[in-house]
Design brief:
It contains three helices and three strands; from the N terminus they run H-E-H-E-H-E. The structure holds NADP nicotinamide-adenine-dinucleotide phosphate (NAP). It comes from uncultured Synechococcales cyanobacterium.
Length: 133
């Protein structure tokens, strides 16, 4: 989490030179405080004690950064790549790396009418893509 803040601070001056600066914080569907309070949610029992809070903190940072940059061309969003087969989970995730990357690139390339300060997770909200916080 603090690494994300340091990386953002390191790159923000360079991003300001862009006509359409975009920041995509790679979060997780497991960051949702709302869904973690819903016993019917399929990941309700996945209470990873460090990982989930670190992503919830990243989501809060996304809100704060989007607010800080609200009067600029920046768009800052938190995006869940989805449960993906990687080393992180011994390749148990059902999604492909290609699909996960596409979910992130979508928000790295949104235009000036695009959202900012939002939490997107196709896994949590397949219909709208926007996850409850
Ligand atoms: N996989 C999923 O199902 C899933 C779901 C939701 C969210 N995510 C998020 O997606 C992101 C990528 O996850 P992943 O599944 O690809 O994990 P991964 O397979 O464990 O890969 C993590 C990558 O991050 C690099 N890394 C770790 N610490 C670093 C550091 N301090 N500086 C630079 N690079 C560092 C690692 O490099 P080395 O190999 O050199 O150590 C590795 O390439 C993470 O933020 C994860 O929380 C993943």
């Amino acid at each position: 989490m603090f690494g994300v803040v340091r990386v953002t601070q390191a790159f923000v001056d360079l991003l300001q030179k862009s006509l359409q600066p975009r920041i995509v914080n790679v979060t997780s569907g497991l960051a949702s405080l709302t869904l973690h309070n819903d016993p019917t949610w399929k990941y309700y029992n996945v209470k990873a004690a460090v990982y989930n809070p670190s992503k919830a903190a990243l989501n809060m940072y996304t809100i704060a950064l989007a607010y800080e940059l609200r009067d600029t061309p920046f768009k800052v969003n938190a995006v869940d790549p989805g449960f993906t087969a990687t080393d992180f989970n011994q390749h148990s995730g059902p999604g492909t790396v290609e699909d996960a990357a596409a979910r992130l690139v979508k928000y790295a390339t949104i235009d000036a009418d695009g959202p900012t300060g939002k939490f997107f997770s196709d896994d949590n909200s397949p219909e709208t893509g926007e996850s409850p916080w």
